[in-house]
Design a protein that fits this description.
Blueprint lengths: L6 H18 L3 H7 L4 H9 L18 H14 L1 H20 L2 H7 L1 H4 L7 E4 L15 E5 L2 E12 L6 E7 L9 E7 L4 E6 L10 E12 L3 E2 L5 H37 L1 E2 L2 E2 L4 H29 L5 H26 L10 H11 L6 H16 E2 L4 E5 L2 E4 L2
Parallel strand pairs: 1-4
Antiparallel strand pairs: 2-3, 3-7, 4-5, 5-8, 6-7, 9-10, 11-12, 12-13
This protein binds flavin-adenine dinucleotide.
Length: about 400
Amino acid sequence: MDFKLSEQEQKIWERAQEFTREYITPKAHELEKRNEFPKDVVQKAYEAGLMNLHVPKEAGGPGLSLLAETLVSEATGYGCAGMATSIMCNNLAFAPLLIGATIEQLKTYVEPLITGKEVKFGAFCLTERGAGSDVSGMTTRAIRDGDEYIINGTKCWITNGPVASLFTVFASTQPELKHKGISVFMVPKTKGVKIGHIENKVGQRNSVQSEVIFEDVRVPKDCLVGKEGDGFKIAMMTLDKTRAGIAAIATGVAQRAVDEAARFASIRHQFGKPVGRFQGISFMLADMGARASAARLLTRYAAWRADQGMPVSKDSAFAKAFASDAAMQNAIDAVQIFGGYGYIQEYPVEKLMRDAKLLQIYEGTNQIQRMVAGRAILKESVNLDTGFHVKYDGRDAPLI
Ligand SMILES: Cc1cc2nc3c(=O)[nH]c(=O)nc-3n(C[C@H](O)[C@H](O)[C@H](O)COP(=O)(O)OP(=O)(O)OC[C@H]3O[C@@H](n4cnc5c(N)ncnc54)[C@H](O)[C@@H]3O)c2cc1C
C-alpha cells in the first residue's frame, strides 16, 4: 500500500497550503467580522488554479482527480472553513453537470465560467424551506412549453447564490411521481431569477447563502441535464462524490484545532509547568490528533475510490460524518484547552467551533450520512428481499 500522493497531487497540495498561509489564515478573522463574501480571496484562488479542478479538459477544465479537489479543500479549510466553502462551491454546482450533461452542454454552459480572467460561480439549488433531508417534497416546478421549460419556485440556503451566474436547479417535472419526477436544469442568471433573503449565520461567515427565487424563468429545452426524472439519481450521485469535499474541509478544521491547542498548551503555564504536560491535557491532544488523522484517511480513501470509479456511497458517508464530528469535537476540545481564552474572539479557536457545526449539517446531515452508511452495510451483508444472509460460512443463513 502506498500512501504517497502523485506528483501532480503533491504539487496541488503544496500550492493550496502556501495559498492558505498567504491569503486565508491572516485575513479570515477580520473578514468574517464583516460577514462579507471574500471575493478578492476567491479570485486569487481562481488565479492560483485551485478551483474547478475536476472539470474535464474537453470542457476547458484541468481534468484533475477528485482527490486533488479534496486536497485543496483540506488545505483551505485549515485556514478558514467559510472561505474553503466559498472556494469549493463550484465543485458542488458543477458535479451534477459533470455526471449528467453532454460535453456540448458543458462547453456551452460551464466552459465560459471557468476560462475567463474573472472568477465566476455556480450554485447548487436543491433545498427548499419545506424540503431539506427529504427532497421528494420539493415544490419547485418545471413545465415544458414548446422548446422551453418554465421554472417556478424558491430554493433556500443556496451557497454562493447571490454571486452565481449559473444555477443547477432541481425541479419537479412530474410531481405525482415524487422523487422519480425530479429533473435537473442548468439555469443561467436570466430574467425571473431573483435573490431573496440572505442568511445571517453563526459560523462560516466568510461564505454567503441566500434564497434563490425562480419566477416564470424560461430556459431552452437543452438546459435539461440527462432525461426528465433523472434529477434525484443525479443529486444522490453528486452528493456521494462531493461529500468527500466537506470531509476534507472538516479534516482541515480538525487539524487546525490540534495545532492551535498544542501550541497554546506548550506556552501556557499553570502550577509551574506548561499545561500540555498535564496528563489530562496531553490525552486530549492525543485523541484530537488521532481523530484528525483518521478523518484524513477516510476522506482521501473515499475520494480515491470515486476516482477509480468504485462504489463510494458508504465511504463518502463514513468520511463526511466522521470527519465533521471530529472537527466539532476537536474544536470543542481546543476551546477547553485554551480555558477562558478559548471563549474570547481574539483567539482562533472559538471560530473553529462555530465553523465546524455547519459541517455536520450541510450536504446531508450526519443523521442522513448514518442512514446512507447503515443501509449500505445492511445491503452488503443481508439480502433484504429474502431476509437471509447472503453468505455465512459459505451458505445462506437465516436471520435470528
Ligand atoms: C449554511 C448552509 C449552506 C447550505 N448550502 C446549500 C446549497 O448550496 N444548496 C442546497 O441545495 N442546500 C444547501 N443547504 C441545505 C442543507 O443541505 C440542509 O440544511 C440539510 O440537508 C438539512 O435539511 P434541513 O435543514 O431542512 O433539516 P431537516 O431535513 O428538516 O432535518 C431536521 C433534523 O431531522 C433530522 N432528520 C431528518 N430526516 C431524518 C431521518 N430520516 N432520520 C434521522 N434524522 C433525520 C436531521 O438530521 C436534522 O437533525 C445549506 C444549509 C446551510 C445551513
